Amino acid sequence: MAGIYIHIPFCRHKCSYCDFVSFPDKVDYAEAYMACLYKELKMRGEELKDRTFDTVYFGGGTPSYIPPKLILGAMNQIKKCFKLSEDAEITLELNPGTIGESKVKTYLEAGINRFSIGLQTAIDEQLEDLGRIHNARDYVYATKLLNGQNFSTDVMLGLKNQTKEDVRKTIELAHVCGSKHISMYALTVEDGTPIYTDYLNGELPDSDEVAEMYEYGCKLLKEKGYERYEISNFAVPGYESKHNLNYWKRGEYIGFGVSASSFMQGSRFTNTFQLDEYMKCIISGFYPAITCEKVAESEAKFEFIMLGLRTKYGVSLKEYKQKFGNEMAEDFPKALRESLKYLELDGDRIRIKDEFLYVQNSILMPFMDELPAEETEKKTEE
Ligand code: SF4
């Protein structure tokens, strides 16, 4: 599998927790930016014309904020420059505060067949605290406009004054509105964001409270027919996100736009985070990558284990051997011994027992400690 990621870095307003590459005051550049992105698609498309891509993902920023004809233009360009598989999953992130009937019509015309809606919480005061531009009613309206289309909903935990009851209301709203997929993840507080002050003042739930909310949310989601297939992702069977599964399987992907990263042929590269620099590079005919790193074998092994263990599918021991030549037990004997009580074996797959998935990071520590010291080969693209 291989995926295409498109970064749309414009937002109407900066959320209080946002640390993503998004510009709240630059939407006037959207048309010029997308013209550059179309060119970047063309440049890479020539190199990758023999490859078939199975997913396309428009993320941001807020892809639903810019004129929808620009999304249509991007899709037309993708179809022109790349081979897409017949049943390609094409997702667009959608902010409920930026949507209307004609936009949805254009998205469908463009071939978007999956939407990812950032609800975060159904409690309006919490949405206001987060600096989100929508309320719960906007979410309901957006889902009605989608009229039976496949969509996913983002739910956040660890918000100021959030209770389990709020989590229940949020999950129930998403369920009632027809969300086939729910991503439930904890708020990450980054230094330098406005919400960091709330964190310093002790106004946010602590990690034990968040863990309790998570457990509660998991139980509720299960009751409602959503199966956990990754730590933060739950889906009605058959509605798992192909695009994200490709990341967790360590599949290849190519990213376009400012700050987008790619992983192709064992190398990872990332585009510049500066809007003007991105546009200047493309206009001058250069790739806008600022880092390009060949992933060392030891790192690749760890990534393969770490990403696989995030999911309910776990890690295939056979695949590990095929990819790296060694048995996993030869490479990580000590880590496997230490983590044994948290793991289970199903056929040739090893995975974290359901009840320990939330503490996956600490289970992975011994694997990290056992990594052979190996330099990653780094080079910077001009
Ligand atoms: S909508 Fe998303 S990308 Fe935009 S400011 Fe809010 S969190 Fe950041």
CATH superfamily of the largest domain: Aldolase class I
Assess the beta-strand content as a share of residues.
15-25%
- What name does the CATH topology of the largest domain carry? TIM Barrel
Structural class: alpha/beta
**What's the N-to-C terminus distance?**
29 Å
Q: Report the bound ligands by name, code or SMILES.
A: iron/sulfur cluster
Share of residues in helices: 40-55%
Major sheet: order of its strands?
Answer: 7-8-6-5-4-3-2-1-9
Radius of gyration: 21 Å
Under the CATH scheme, the architecture of the largest domain is: Alpha-Beta Barrel
Number of strand elements = 16
Number of helices: 15
Stretches where pLDDT is under 50 for at least 5 consecutive residues are 375-382
User: What does the largest sheet look like?
Assistant: 9 strands, mixed
Mean pLDDT: 94
The top-level CATH class of the largest domain is Alpha Beta
Task: Quickly list its features.
single chain, globular, binds iron/sulfur cluster, 2 domains, alpha/beta, nine-stranded mixed beta sheet, TIM Barrel, four-stranded antiparallel beta sheet
